[in-house]
Amino acid sequence: MARLLHTKTIGVLVLVTLLVVTFGCGKQQTIRPDEPFARDADDRPIEEVESVDPSLVWQTVDRTVFVQAEQALNLRRGFGTFWGSPIEAANINRFDEVPDCAWFTNRHGLSPMSPEAILTGTNITPGPDTTGEWLVFRPKIQGATVGFWIEDSRGDEYIIKFDPAGYAELATGAAAMGSRYFHACGYNAPQETIVHWRPEWLRIKEGATIRGSDGVKRPMTREDIDAILERVQRQPDGSIRSLASLSLGKTGAIKGPFAYDGRRGDDPNDWCDHEDRRELRALYVIASLVNHYDLKDQNTLDIFVRTDGDRGYLRHYLIDFGSTFGSDGRAPKHPRKGYANGFDLKDVMVNWLTLGLRKWAWENNVLSPYPSVGMFESKNFRPEKFDPIVPNPAFDNMTDRDAYWGAKIVMAWRDEHLRALIDAGEYTDPEAKEYLFTTLVERRDKIGRYWFSKVNPLDHFEVMGGAHGMLIAFEDLAVKYGLAPGIGNRYHYVLKYDGDKIVSGETGETAVVLSISDLASMAEAYKPGHEDKNHLYRLEIRTERQGNKPGKPTVVWLWYDDEQSIFEYVGLEHVG
Amino acid sequence: MTLVRRHCGLAVALALVLILVCSAQAETADSTDVRVPQPKSKSAGEVLLDIPSFIISIPVYIIKTLVRGFVALGTDESFVAQIVELFSQPLSPVTPAFSYEGNSSLAGGLAFRQWNLFDSGDRLRIKGLYSLNDYSTADLKYSNPGMADSLMGLTLQVSYQRMPRETFFGLGNHSEEADEVAYALERTRVRGDLMLRAGSVASVGVFGGYTDCITFDGEDPDLPGRLSEIRDMFDLTASDTRSAQFVTIGGSLESDTRNSKGQPSSGGRNYVEVSYNTGVGSDDDIRFTQIRAELSQYFELYRKRIIAFRAIVQNIDNAESAGSNPFYLRSSLGGPETLRGYRTVRLTDNDLALVTIEYRYPIYDMIDALVFFDEGRVFSDMGDEFTLKDWRYSAGIGLRVWNPEEVVVSAQVARSDDGWEFFFQAGQGF
Asked: What is the pLDDT of residue A204?
C-alpha cells in the first residue's frame, strides 16, 4: 500500500511538474523597451525554391480526419486549453500586433484607408487592355468556375472568370469585392478587375492546348471557347461581364500553395509554424465577415519575388475569392456553406445520434431576393460558428487574443468603407447593393460584439508624461464602435510590481492618471536587478459596464529606466 | 522503497533543471524593430509533453501513412491511379460493387452501367459479384422507359445465381432458428416486362419469363445439407426439395406518386402483380398462381425528416391438380428487403404479410439515417388462418446513400428474437 501511495505521489508530482514547467514558463515576460518589432525580416534573399503541388484529396482527408485526431491526442494542446494557457501566436510583437511581413502588411486595421484606396485595391495594371485582341492561351479548369487565360495587347496575362448563367454579377461581384477586402485587411491578394468585353476580341494563341474529355491534350479550338461561353451569363447586347485576375506570374515565379500548418522546408525565411501565425489564425474572424467559405491550401499561392539577381523571397498570397459573400462560383452558396465544414464529421454524428431532431441554424437560411447577391445573410450568422470548407489547423489554434485582433480589423470597416467595397462589385441593382450593405453591417457588428466580449477591448494606448505625473489614455473599442453604451462605464486599474500592488483606483474616463506620488511609489518599489523583468510594471485595467462585474484585464506594461528615472510604455496584452 | 525515493528525487531534480532551462530561454530577446527570423525552439517542458503525445498518436500516424500512400497511388500516373480515376469519375460506367448478407457473407465485384444507349433515357446495367461463401451472381438488366413517346416502357433482365449455402428452417411461422439447414440452389432466370403508361403516375404491365432452379446438397460444413437429410428433418416430400423449371406470365398495376426515387418524402408507390407459373419438361406438375401487393407511403414531418410506411401481402395458390411447390418457390420473410432482424429466407410458407414503419432523416448531403420497425408473418393459407397473433418483429437502424434516381447503397443492422443481423447492399427495398 505504501509503495502504491508513493508511486501515485510520483505520478502526480511528475504531472504537476510537467504542467508547471510547460505552462508556468510560458508566462515569463520578455518585454524590452527596444521593441516592438515593426517588421519581420522574412524577405531576406534566398535561393529559388521548387514549386509544390499538393493533393487536394489528401488535404481534405487529412484535415477532416487525421489532423483532428492528432489535435485531440496532443497533450500539450489539451492541457493548455484546460489550464487556461492556450498556445499563443508566435509572430506577434509586444503591442499585441502582427509586424509587417511576407504574409501580411498592416493596412486598414492599423490606420483606416480611404474609401478610394479600398476601391482601388491591389493596383498593378489598369486591367486588361480593351482596345486590342485577347489571345487565349490556356483553359482554366481548376477551381469552382471555368474560364481561360488570356494575354492582352500589352502582354499582361489574366485569368478570365465568369458569372454563372442566370446569376449576373454574382461571382464576378463577389470576387472583385473579396480581393479588395482581403487586401485592405492586410493580406496579399491578386488584382481583380471587372471587365466588359465581346467574344469577337478573342483569338486562340498558337500552340494553345486543352485536355479533351478522353484526357488527352490537343490543340485548343474556337469550339472549345464557345463551349465555355455557352455556360456563362451574357449581357443583352452580347457582351460579357467577367472578372480579370492579373496573373501573379507578373509579380514573380509561382511556387504552389502554402499550407495552413507546418513550415515550408526549403524556405529559410519561414521561421514560424503557420498554424501559429496570428494573421492566419485570425483569418477565421476576418473571413467570416464575407463568408469566405472556400479557405483551403489550394486557394493560396507562394510567389518567389526576385530581389537580388536570381535570389529573392517567397511572398504568400490568398487567391480565388469567387466563393465569398453569397457566391459559390458556379451558383449561389448552399445554405450550409460557411456554417459547417464540407464534410463535418461532428455535425454528421450529432445528426445521427439526435435522430435528426437537432435543427441547425443554417437550415433557416434562405436565398436573398437578389440573384446577384445569392445566399448571404446575417440573421442566422454566429461569428464563432463560422466553418470553412475543410477544418483549418490555424483556425483551430486561434485564441481569444487572436480573434480580438481579427475583430479589430473587421470593426475598422466603417459604413463608408463597406459602401466603397460594395462599389467595387459594380452591381447594377441599387436594392441589391443596399441589401449587401445592411447584411455586412449586421455581420460586422455581430463579429465585434462577440469577439470583443472575449477580452477587454481597450486599445490604441497613448502614454504621456509630464510634470504632474503620467497620463495613460486609451480607446474603449466597444464604445467607439457603438457596441456598448458610452456612459456608465467604470475602468478599474491596478498597478503591480513583482506581484505587489502599488497603485489602484477606478475612473469613468478612458484614461488612467498616475500622479507624481504614484510614480514615486512605483520608483520606490523598484528592486534593481540584471533581469528584464526587474524593470517591468504591470498595469491591469478591467472594465465594469452598467454595473456588471469587471471582466478580464487589458495589461499595459511599463518599463522603468532606472538611469533616467522614467517609465516607458513597452507592451500591451489583451488577456483572453 | 529506496528506489521510490530515488525516483522522487530524480523527478524533483528534473523539474528544477527544466525550470532553470525555461527561465534561461525566456530571457533571450532581440533588440531591433526588425525581427530576424530565428529557428523556433521548444522548451523542455513542451518536449516532455510532446513525447507521450507522439506515443499515443502512433496508431493515427500509421493509418495516416497508409491512407496517404493510397491517395498518392491514386494521384500519380500509375495503373492504380488510372483505376482510381476510372472509379472516381462522376457517372463512371464501371464501379466497384459490394454487399454483405448472412448467407453469402461479404461479396465484391464490378458493376457496369451505360445510359442512353439508344438516346431514349434507357439504361444498361451489368453486375457481377463473388462472395467469401462462394456465392456467384451475374445480372444483366436493360430498361427503356421512353419507348413510343414515353407511353411504353420495356425491361429485360437475365440473371444467374449460385447459392451454395442457402438456409432453410422448415415451413411455417413457428420454425426455430436452431433447426437451420443449408442447401444449395442454382437459379437462372430470364424475364421481360412491358409497361404501358396510363396517365402520369399509373402504369399497366405484362411480363413473361423462364426460370431454371437446380437444388443440390448444401456446402456449409457446419450445417446439415444433404437434401435427403433435410427432407427427413422437416418431414418433406421429394417434390418439396426438387429442382424446377417453369415459365411465368403475368400482369401488374402500378401507381407511383413518389416525388423522388432516392429520397421519397411525399406520395407513395402501390404495386399489384399477378403471375401464373407452370412447370416445363419433367416439372410440368408445377402450377401455381402468385399474387403480390406492395403499398408504400411517405410523409415529410419537416425538412426531409420522413416517415415511410410499407405493407406487403403475398399469396401463393397451387392449382388443385398440381403437385406441391418446392419450398424455395414459396413466400418467405427475412433479409434486407423484408423482416430485417431475421436471416434471409428465415420464415417460409405459402403466404406472407409484412408491415414496416421507418423514420428517415438526413445526416449529410444524400446520406439518410433510418430507424425502423418491421412486423411480419407467414401463413399456410392466409385466407383461412389469418390472425394477428404470433407476428414476428424486428427493429433496427441503418444508413442509406442516395441520389435523385435511386438508393445507391444501404447498410442496416436489426435485432429480433433470433439475434442481430447486419446487411450491406446496393439499393434499399423501398
From this structure: 92
Contacts with A9 from chain B: Cβ below 8 Å: 8
CB B248 within 8 A of CB B329: no
Q: Which residues of B touch A347 (CB under 8 A)?
A: 364
Alpha helices in B221-298 (DSSP H): 227-234
Q: What percent of chain B has pLDDT over 70?
A: 85
User: From the CB of residue A472, how many other CB atoms can be counted at a distance below 10 Å?
Assistant: 22
What backbone phi and psi angles, to 5 degrees, belong to A388? -80, 180
Q: What is the pLDDT of residue A56?
A: 79
- Please give the share of chain A, as a percent, with pLDDT higher than 90: 64
The pLDDT of residue B20 is 41
Give the amino acid at A330.
R
| Contact residues on chain B for A71, CB-CB shorter than 8 A | none
- Selected for mutation to probe chain B from A4, A7, A17 (highest B CB count within 10 Å) is A17
Residue A500 bridge partners (DSSP): A497
Q: Name the β-bridge partners of B310.
A: B296, B356
The answer to whether A155 and A133 have CB atoms below 8 angstroms apart is no
**Nearest in space to A184 (alpha carbons), one of A92, A93, A119, A278:** A119
With bands split at pLDDT 50, 70 and 90, how would you rate the model's confidence at B405?
confident
The pLDDT confidence band at residue B4, using thresholds 50, 70 and 90, is very low
List, edge to edge, every strand of the sheet that includes A511-515: A458-466, A469-476, A511-515
The predicted structure's pLDDT at residue A563: 86
Rounded distance, CA A288 to CA A395, Å?
12
Q: Which range scores top for mean pLDDT: A135-149, A416-430, B70-84?
A: A416-430
ipTM, two decimals, is 0.74
Of B191, B252, B185, the C-alpha closest to B220 is: B185
Q: Under an 8 A CB cutoff, do B35 and A37 touch?
A: yes
- How far apart are alpha carbons B361 and B83 in whole angstroms? 34
At residue B309, the pLDDT reads 97
Which of A312, A377, A310 minimizes the C-alpha distance to A338?
A377
Q: Looking at the complex, does the CB of residue B72 fall below 8 Å from at least one CB of chain A? A: yes
The answer for residues whose C-beta is within 8 angstroms of residue A420's C-beta and 6 or more apart is: A115, A116, A118, A119
Q: A-chain residues within 8 Å CB-CB of B19? A: 20-21, 24-25
Q: Which of B1, B38, B49 sits opposite A22 (nearest CB)?
A: B49
φ and ψ of A479, to 5 deg? -75, -45
pLDDT value at A490 more than 90: yes
Instruction: Read off the pLDDT of residues A355-409 as tens digits, 9 standing for 90 and up.
Output: 998 888 898 999 999 999 999 999 999 999 999 999 999 999 999 999 999 999 9
Specify whether the backbone of B362 is left (phi greater than 0), alpha (psi in -120 to 50) or beta.
beta
Local confidence band at B66 (pLDDT 50, 70, 90 cut-offs): confident
Cα–Cα distance measured from residue A216 to residue A500, given in angstroms and rounded to the nearest whole number: 75
Q: In this predicted model, which residue has the larger pLDDT, B233 or A4?
A: B233
Query: Given B1, B35, B49, which is nearest A99 (Cβ)?
Result: B35
User: Listing from the earlier edge strand, what are the strands of the sheet with A157-162?
Assistant: A192-197, A240-246, A157-162, A147-151, A134-140, A202-204
Are B46 and A22 an interchain contact pair (Cβ–Cβ within 8 Å)?
yes
- The SS3 call for residue A237 is coil
Q: What angle do CA B84, A214, A222 make, to 5 degrees?
A: 140
Judging by beta carbons within 10 Å of its beta carbon (0-12, 13-18, 19+), is residue B13 exposed, middle or buried?
Answer: exposed
B395 versus B88: the higher-pLDDT residue is B395
Out of A18, A25, A30, the one facing B29 most closely (by C-beta) is A30
Mean pLDDT, chain A, rounded, equals 89
Phi, psi of A256 (to 5 degrees): 85, 175
Beta strands in B33-135 (DSSP E): 34-35, 94-101, 105-115, 123-131
Chain-centre distance for alpha carbon B59 = 31
